[in-house]
Amino acid sequence: MNFDYSEEQQLLADSVRRFLQNKYQFEDRKRIIDGQGWSPEVWAKFAEMGLAGLPLPADYGGFGGGALDLMSVMEAFGEALVVEPFLPSVMAARLVARAGSEAQKRALLPALAEGRLRLAFAASPKGNVVGAPPAGKLVLQDGGDLFLIDAAEVKMKPYRTLDNMLAAEIDASGLKSERLSGNAETLVGEAVDFATALACAEAVGVMKFACDATLEYLKTRKQFGVPIGTFQALQHRIVDMFIECEQARSMACLACSKVDSVENPADRARAVSAAKIRVSDAARHVSQESVQLHGGMGMSEELKVSHAFRRLTVLARQFGDADHHLERFASL
Amino acid sequence: MDLNYSAEELAFRDQVRAWLAASLPAELKDKGHYSRDELLAWHRILAKQGWVAPAWPKEWGGTGWNLVQRYLFEEELGYAGGPPLIPFGLSMCAPVLLRFGSEAQKKRFLPRIYHGEDFWCQGYSEPGSGSDLASLKTKAVRKNDHYVVNGQKTWTTLAHYADWIFCLVRTDPTVEKRQEGISFLLIDMKSPGITVRPLILMDGAHEVNEVFFDDVEVPAQNRVHEEGRGWTVAKYLLGYERMNTGRIGESKRQLAKLKELAKNKRNDVRFRDRLSRLEIELTALEITNLRFLDRMRRTGQPPGADVSMLKIKGTEIQQGLTELAVECTDPLAGDEMSLALQKKYLSMRKTTIYAGSNEIQRNIIAKMTLGL
């Protein structure tokens, strides 16, 4: 038993945090959102730091890392509210790595690791796909089959999600495409669990930011001549926010550890669903309380905490909300 | 990061589990309330095995186990469903004696605590002093080689079983800082002038008492640490052995029993989801608990104030489990089993109040961890 990140994992997380603190401040993020919605420079830097290749197999330019290796990175992304569509690309890449032919893997994975290519996953030929616009190829599920298609050939109507992620309404019906081998349901189930575990880690990062920012506000905001953090009614509420965050973190650790180590799909799914239920509940609690304790300022577009609220609102439901996972948890 | 126990740790757990399965008498399992004899019977079985006080120094009977082994042992002990090990002697009075007691006090009391010869209780709360413990009024006046104690303690758990009580008393009412006028006394419950009166709680059980002190003479040699330093002693105890306040093992056992009980509610989705959430909360708390343990092991530091969250969450879970168990019974039931489940729910309301109410735990985290 050991809850420490390895030295490599810690060094990586430190360098990601350092980069984000220097180049991905709230104002930088705003510029990216107001621009094309993602940043090629930032993506190049992610690739340079080895993030793009981290979860890819070593034979194809990657480092063969798992969810535990990405966990601290996702937390750091959460803290900075990163809008680059990293997780969608990681998830689709996992499908290529597992179901692609030798030629497909040679063609795509090294390019992904080097940051020259992005992928996204579409669960059906028509639908909403996060990360579709900057993706070069889409991994498309059509019933029991998986296909690889050129993003350029797909009809796309780009938009931004509630939390400012770049997405598109796609229509890929009738497109000629390359097939990936294997059972789509099993493969996608595994990839979604992997991505869900990482989304849990990301949500923990956002919650950490929301808790820290709220604590800071309680210490500085004065009313009735004293910092509002001296009021017990507010102290107990922020303590509960921190406890929620810690309980969610514990479950994110469990989910990331299980998607890496458990071979039995039911055990893996049960752990991931348990984590997503707990993280979704915590995300709702922490986001709502962080805005409430900030008072009117929490509503303001200018404050990062309102963007954390938007992100947590989406993350609580992305990859299935608590009700969805309660259903699955009970069925396993 | 690796959430799994090592092979050695698992082997240790299996050894403990096997011993408990073989050594815990069936008639002592899963009883809501235990007599003094039952409590001491189990205590003595563990003492004979050498496992009754794992955390003590080896010279006094400790096992020399590391943090993880101690945690695993406590979890297995809870999961086995035997009588609780009453903490007042083993994990409250003893650590105080080990840290602040004289050699004579250690020699006199520790072996008797270890072997279950003395039953201890705790004299902290008073009618006017609950969460604000430092306002306590029970006074002890020095007269030659003894103190004369007058006053009242309340909510005194198992005082009616006890041979001894350790008490916080006021030895100096004149100091400006009220914490500085408090001393820590060990008092023989057979002393003339002590009256124990039961307080029956809403489940009908006799667990707690009022203890009255009327000119009780206590030898000065029964004072632990210096006069006026009782608050230091009490604070030391607060930080000691707080790693099991989550009661994970015990709650796991209750969860398993609840699932058995709720078998015919399988199609009740509303109930099912609440049970799932509770189970997940317990899983999360177990990992949170292990994270604290791992931090202690790595840093060599005692747990920080944030360990209070284990008490908060652990007691909420314990209450939640009994609440769901009640829902498996007929509200108008009269059979013994249903009433026992319902009374357990009544009884468990105490958990978020005792040992520093959950509101006090939140105050502690707010002040010590968050700096508010």
Description of the structure:
The complex is a heterodimer of chains A (332) and B (372). Chain A has helices spanning 7-23, 26-34, 40-48, 67-80, 86-99, 102-113, 184-220, 232-261, 265-294, 304-315, 322-331, and strands at 119-122, 126-130, 137-142, 145-150, 155-160, 166-171, 178-180, 222-223, 226-227. With 332 residues, chain A is α+β, with helices and mostly antiparallel strands. Chain A folds into 2 domains: 7-180, Butyryl-Coa Dehydrogenase, subunit A, domain 1 (Orthogonal Bundle); 184-331, Butyryl-CoA Dehydrogenase, subunit A, domain 3, CATH 1.20.140. The mean pLDDT of chain A is 96. Chain B is α+β, with helices and mostly antiparallel strands. Chain B has 3 domains: 7-85, no CATH class; 120-228, Butyryl-CoA Dehydrogenase, subunit A, domain 2; 242-369, Butyryl-CoA Dehydrogenase, subunit A, domain 3 (Up-down Bundle), CATH 1.20.140. Chain B is built from 11 helices and 8 strands. A 4-stranded mixed β-sheet of chain B has the order 1-4-5-8. In chain B, strands 2-3-7-6 form a 4-stranded antiparallel β-sheet, with no helix packed on it. The longest helix of chain B has 31 residues, at 269-299. Chain B starts with 6 loop residues before the first helix and ends with a helix. Chain A binds chain B through residues 1-6, 9, 68, 71, 215, 218-219, 229-230, 232, 235-236, 238-240, 242-243, 246-251, 253-254, 256-257, 274, 277-278, 281, 323, 326, 329-330, and chain B through 1-6, 9, 68, 272-273, 276-277, 279-281, 283-285, 287-288, 290-291, 294-295, 298, 306, 309, 312-313, 359, 362-363, 365-366, 369-372.
